[in-house]
Amino acid sequence: DAMYQVLAYYIFTEITDPHKEVKNHKQFFKDRDVSGRIYISEEGINGQMSGSLEEAKSYMEWLRSDLRFARVKFKIDESSENIFPRMSVKYREQLVALDEKASAQEGGEHVPPAKWKEMLESGEYLVLDVRNDYESAIGHFKGAITPPLKTFREFPEYAQKLSEEVDPEKTKVMMYCTGGIRCELYSALLKKRGFQDVYQLDGGVIQYGLEEGSAHWEGKLFVFDDRLAIPIDGKEAVPISSCSFCEASSDTYYNCANMDCNTLFLACPSCVEEERGCCCESCKEVPRLRPFDPKAGNKPFRKKHLLMQECGCGG
Ligand SMILES: [Zn+2]
Ligand SMILES: [Zn+2]
Q1: Residue 92 Cα, ligand 1 centroid: separation in angstroms?
Q2: Which ligand number lies closest to the CA of residue 250?
Q3: Structure confidence at residue 241 (pLDDT)
Q4: What residue numbers bound the domain in which 249 lies?
Q5: Which pLDDT score, from 0 to 100, does residue 51 have?
C-alpha cells in the first residue's frame, strides 16, 4: 500500500546564501517522518524525498511559499516506505557535475510526455539517453543512443564528437534523463556545439511514466534511492539486462562487498550468494569485505549504496 509520497523536483534559481537555505530546510524537517536527499547550491535546489501525504503536502506548500521556489514542479509518485535511509540536506557547488559552464536558460525546448511520445513515433529524431551506463543498462527508450561514457563529466567531449559525426544543423535531438535536471544543462552544451533542434523530456522518465506509462520504454528505471530500480508505470517490467556471472535475466544491482571496490553489478540471486556479494573473484579475496546476507537482498548496504553515482543529482 502506498502510504508514502515520493517527491522529485528541482529548480534553477539564484540562492545567494545556500548554507542558510540548508539550515532552513534542516529546521523544517526536524522531527518529521521524512527521508530524502536534497542538494542546494547558488544555482538552485535539487531534491528527492518521501513522506506521508500530509508531510509531503506541507513541504510542497512551505517550499512554494518562498518566491524563489514558487515555480518549482514536483513529480509525485507513491511508495510503501520511506525511500532513503534518512533525510540529508547538503550544500553542493554544482547541482549537476560538469567541468564546463552551462546555463539552463540556454537549454533545449521542453517537451511534455504526450508530445514526446508522438515525436518518438515520428522516427525523425536522434534519441539521446544522458544517464550513466549502469542506468540505461536496465531500462531505456527503445532505440535510444546511450553515450559510452565512464562519467558524464565527459559529456562536453561527447557532444563535440557527436557534432562531427552527424550534421548538427540537420539532426534533431531528443534528450532525456531520470527527472529532467541533467538535460537542462547537457542540452545547453549540445546547442553550444551547433545543434539547433534540441528537445528535452519535461520531468524526465519519471513524469513520462506517470502520464504515458511504458509506451516505447523497455526495462526499469534506475533511481538513486533504496528502491534502486522501479517499473515506470507501476506495473511489472521484463528485465532487459542479465546477471554478470551466468547471463540469467536480472535487473537487480548490488554494490560489491569489497569495501574498496563498491562497484555496482547486476546479479541473479544464486550467483550473488555464491560470490558472497562480490563483483569478481579477486574482490572475494580481500580482507575488507562486508558480510553478505542473501536474505537481506541489496538493501543493507544503504550507506555505501550507489557510490558510483557521479554527482548524486538523481536527475
Ligand atoms: Zn547468475
Ligand atoms: Zn568488486
Answers
A1: 38
A2: 1
A3: 97
A4: 242-315
A5: 96
Total count of domains within the chain: 3
Dump pLDDT digits (tens) for 47-77. 999 999 999 999 999 999 999 999 999 999 9
Q: What is the CA(48)–ligand 2 centre distance, in A?
A: 28
With bands split at pLDDT 50, 70 and 90, how would you rate the model's confidence at 308?
A: very low
Region 105-134: mean pLDDT is 96
Q: For residue 307, tell me if it sits in a domain.
A: yes
Domain boundary, last residue among 57, 91, 125: 91
Are residues 260 and 167 part of one domain? no
All three cell numbers of 10: 528541482
**Catalytic residue at 177?**
yes
3-state class percentages of the chain: helix first, strand second, coil last, to nearest 5: 30, 25, 45
Strand bridging mode 4-12 / 73-79: antiparallel
Q: Alpha-carbon distance 256 to 48, whole Å?
A: 25
Mean pLDDT of 259-282: 92
Q: Determine whether 286 is exposed, middle or buried from the number of CB atoms within 10 Å of its CB (0-12, 13-18, 19+).
A: middle
**Averaged pLDDT for residues 252-268:** 90
Protein residues placing their CB within 5 Å of the ion ligand 1: 243, 245-246, 248, 268, 271
Which ligand is closest in space to the CA of residue 278? 2
Compute the distance between CA of residue 249 and CA of residue 201 in angstroms, rounded to an integer. 29
Please give the distance, rounded to the nearest whole angstrom, from the Cα atom of residue 310 to the centre of ligand 2: 18
Q: Which of 216, 213, 222 is nearest to 251 (CA)?
A: 222
Instruction: Give residue-wise pLDDT tens across range 1-38.
Output: 668 999 999 999 999 999 999 999 999 999 999 999 99
Which ligand does the CA of 271 lie closest to? 1
What is the CA(140)–ligand 2 centre distance, in A? 26
Same domain, 127 and 66: no
| CA 273 / ligand 1 centre spacing (Å) | 9
Residue listed under C-alpha cell 530546510: 25
Tell me the CATH number at 77: 3.30.70.100
Place of cell 522518465: 205
